[in-house]
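Quick one:
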Amino acid sequence: MEFDLFLRYGPALLHGFGVTILCWIVGSLGGAVLGFAIACLYRWAGRPLRAVLQTYIELIRGTPFMIQLFILYYGGPNVGLLLTPVQAGITSFIIYGSPYFAEIFRSGFNAIPKGQIEAARCMGFSEATIMRRIILPQTLVLITAPLTNFVIILTKETAILSVVTVPELLYQTQTMAAETFTYVEPFLVLSLFYWLLVVLTSGLGKKVEARAMRHLKRA
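Output:
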């Protein structure tokens, strides 16, 4: 790639990288929070609400992310929901990720020995205290690896946002390639950006897991 092309399109690529980071972080955090809420509701709710939550989980997991994005962005105005491309991208990420996060949290909850929970109840602990002091510390250790893997998957799913003109990294790369007729170099740079994100996410996940293990041993 010629240096002048880098000077010309470098700011656009960096802006696209920033939009990718924004959609990825906000979407992942929002999906994790919503998924945790769903997992908690599923744990303590009655059968009717569980059926509703399970339907939501199966519906979102059973449809492609691109279709959900199209429905939200192009179908939203039909029901008065007007979103910018970035807003639609982040909202779609939250909705798409929440069922997967919910199942990860739920599997972690179910892995905690029931004897510990029953003993805590016998000692008079409230459900909130049991969740905070017994379930969550152990669950965090158990689910750090699957959480990290799914966040990495979401990193690469951000490329789909370009189909609704979100000015993220792939969109800027495609624009550069179309205007300069150079395809190999821009997409190699694109691959490098995503590779760096995956490496950083994987490393952060390992550090969180190690810290949680040390905390659990001290406890």
